[in-house]
């Protein structure tokens, strides 16, 4: 009996059962990055998927990084603003790229330098900045160009984007959360910018985290998080997750 106790392995914990709120069906879309064409395609797939299932209250969440890198950032912002007016139960999160745009609009030249490196050129060109004006500007000049060309209504909309949405056993954020801290102690900075500290953590969080920000070739399903940024601007694969009850599934523009 002693021998058995010494060498027997502890039973593995039962898999965690995750549930979305009863009677509600959630769809969350990963990083769009100026690809209006893919957004429209995926919205159509979501509507078809929702119509093919049993009746439920639909919720749609965008995980942020609407802008930069792709060619149609302005039109993506306009489309997302329209979705907020025409769809019930619609939520949109802000990502680090929206954060950079806001800092650039505030006149922060250091942020404008980062904005330039990660696709800000494409964003400002989509707002009517000419290639010549962009190329001839220093980082302070990029701040001025942004302030002149980005409509106040768009800046106000971006400034009002949310940091997270919690629903049932799931938490939707752009980048992730700081391990070891309760949701009430999470910072906006972490939820929009965190990477390795979050992605390399194997410990369970309060909720299963659905996130974008970190590009993977396929959906990245882990024990504590699900990453759905599949690099749409470069791969043409924009991905959404669907959640209802204990079920989850994925939709992609390459399906």
Could you name the key traits of this structure?
40% helix; 255 residues; five-stranded mixed sheet; Purple Acid Phosphatase, chain A, domain 2; alpha/beta; 12 helices
- Reading off the top of the CATH hierarchy, the class of the domain at 18-95 and 161-166 and 174-252 is best stated as Alpha Beta
CATH architecture tag of the domain at 18-95 and 161-166 and 174-252: 4-Layer Sandwich
Largest sheet: 5 strands, mixed
Which fold name fills CATH's third level, the topology of the domain at 18-95 and 161-166 and 174-252? Purple Acid Phosphatase, chain A, domain 2
What structural class do the secondary elements suggest?
alpha/beta
Helix percent band = 25-40%
Description of the structure:
- The chain has helices at 2-7, 36-52, 73-86, 96-105, 109-117, 120-126, 131-135, 139-149, 152-159, 188-193, 196-199, 232-235; strands at residues 24-29, 57-62, 90-92, 164-167, 170-173, 208-211, 220-221, 225-227, 239-244, 247-252.
- By secondary structure, it is an alpha/beta fold.
- The protein has a domain at 18-95 and 161-166 and 174-252: Purple Acid Phosphatase, chain A, domain 2.
- A hairpin with a 2-residue loop joins strand 4 (164-167) and strand 5.
List the helices and strands and how they pair.
Elements: H1 2-7, E1 24-29, H2 36-52, E2 57-62, H3 73-86, E3 90-92, H4 96-105, H5 109-117, H6 120-126, H7 131-135, H8 139-149, H9 152-159, E4 164-167, E5 170-173, H10 188-193, H11 196-199, E6 208-211, E7 220-221, E8 225-227, H12 232-235, E9 239-244, E10 247-252
Helix pairs in contact: 4-5, 5-8
């Amino acid at each position: 009996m002693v021998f058995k106790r010494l060498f027997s392995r502890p039973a593995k914990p039962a898999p965690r059962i995750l549930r979305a709120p009863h009677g509600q069906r959630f769809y969350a879309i990963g990083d769009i990055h100026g690809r209006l064409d893919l957004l429209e395609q995926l919205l159509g797939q979501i509507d078809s998927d929702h119509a093919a299932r049993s009746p439920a209250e639909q919720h749609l969440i965008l995980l942020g990084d609407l802008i930069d890198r792709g060619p149609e950032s302005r039109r993506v912002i306009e489309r997302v603003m329209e979705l907020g007016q025409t769809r019930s139960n619609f939520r949109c999160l802000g990502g680090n790229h929206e954060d950079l745009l806001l800092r650039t609009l505030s006149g922060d030249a250091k942020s404008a330098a980062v904005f330039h490196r990660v696709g800000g050129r494409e964003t400002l060109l989509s707002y009517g900045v000419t290639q010549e004006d962009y190329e001839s500007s220093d980082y302070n000049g990029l701040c001025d160009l942004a302030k002149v060309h980005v409509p106040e209504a768009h800046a106000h909309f971006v400034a009002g984007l949310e940091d997270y949405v919690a629903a049932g056993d799931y938490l939707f954020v752009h980048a992730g959360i700081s391990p070891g801290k309760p949701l009430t102690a999470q910072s906006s900075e972490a939820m929009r910018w965190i990477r390795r500290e979050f992605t390399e953590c194997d410990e369970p969080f309060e909720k299963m985290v659905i996130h974008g920000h970190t590009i993977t070739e396929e959906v990245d399903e882990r024990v504590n998080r699900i990453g759905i940024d599949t690099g749409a601007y470069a791969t043409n694969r924009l991905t959404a997750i669907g959640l209802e009850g204990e079920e989850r599934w994925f939709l992609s523009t390459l399906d």
